[in-house]
Amino acid sequence: MIGSTRTIQVWAYPTPVDLRKGYNGLFSLVANKLGQEPLSGDYFLFVNRARNRVKVLLWDGTGLCIYMKRLERGRFARLWSRNGTTGLVLTPSELALFLEGCQLIERRRLSPPQYGYKQLASGDRL
After folding, report:
1. How far is CA 80 from CA 13, 47, 89, in A?
2. By residue range, what is the domain housing residue 39?
3. Residue 1 domain-assigned?
4. For residue 23, is it within any domain?
């Protein structure tokens, strides 16, 4: 698994991509189509139409890196919808599961939602 010691986001490109693209082609898709900063340190996931190859583009602080995986049998999960209009945000754990070939069926929120603090009225007593 691609390692990182900081909180990152994984952006999955919303449509199949011609994976003959290299650094410049994928950089352009991230900047122009996803509207994200390719040099942010986040991971950007691209899948081909046959779903048997993926590339992950990332900036490691010194340069762009591309990681590629090709399946010999089977297919990766479909991350895009039929209309494919927006990128999907994954967690690093979901990326690891995706690269291992797991089918991403549903998400369950494990942490409770953040609670806002409510100020008590000045006359209220605890």
Report:
1. 8, 10, 11
2. 10-100
3. no
4. yes
Q: d(Cα 26, Cα 44) in Å, to the nearest integer?
A: 9
Which range has the worst mean pLDDT, 37-46, 47-56, 100-109? 100-109
Would the pTM of this model clear 0.85, i.e. be above it? Answer: no
Round the average pLDDT of the chain to a whole number and report it: 82
Split into its structural domains, the chain has a count of 1
Are the C-beta atoms of residues 62 and 30 closer than 8 Å to each other? Answer: no
How many C-beta neighbours within 10 Å does residue 68 have? Answer: 10
Asked if the structure places residue 3 within a domain, the reply is no
Q: Is residue 124 part of a domain?
A: no
Is the CB of residue 56 less than 8 Å from the CB of residue 66? Answer: yes
Question: What 3-state DSSP class applies to 100?
Answer: helix
Give the three-class secondary structure for 11: strand
